[in-house]
Amino acid sequence: MQLDARQIIIRPVISEQSYDQIENNVYTFEVAKSANKIEIAQAVEKIFGVTVEKVNTLNVKPKSKRLRYKQGLTRTWKKAMVTLAEGDTIEIFGA
User: Fold this and answer.
1) Residue 87 gets which letter from DSSP?
2) What is the pTM for the complete model shown?
3) Alpha-carbon dihedral of residues 55, 62, 2, 13, nearest 10 degrees?
4) 2 phi/psi in degrees, rounded to 5
């Protein structure tokens, strides 16, 4: 089953570490678990009109959480760090 570009890129990851990486032209996104690096690169190029040089991915493991007497876990998700070519930027981050 082929996913659409908007189904592959779910949302940008907003954190201090991801903002620091923007200076190195690396942008961080939450992506679909089933997406591979090639699909992620093609989706970013299609959505934002930039050139992708490299994609690093990792699966974020769940963390243990507690709500009163109930023990549970946060959800698992996939993170992609996308390195863009020199001179390309993504304006959604406001950088």
Assistant:
1) T
2) 0.89
3) -50
4) -85, 130
Map tokens 């974020």 to a residue.
Answer: 60
Give the three-state DSSP class for 26. strand
- For residue 56, give both structure tokens: 């690093």
Query: At which residue do the structure tokens 């299609």 appear?
Result: 46
Q: For 5-62, what is each residue's pLDDT tens digit?
A: 999 999 999 999 999 999 999 999 999 999 999 999 999 999 999 999 999 999 999 9
**Amino acid, res. 18:** S
> Per-residue DSSP letters for 2-25?
PPPHHHHEEEE--SHHHHHHHTTT
Report d(CA 60, CA 6) in Å as an integer: 20
Query: Cβ distance 7 to 40 under 8 Å?
Result: no
Distance CA 31, CA 80 (A): 7
**CB under 8 Å to 92, separation ≥6 — which residues?**
12, 48
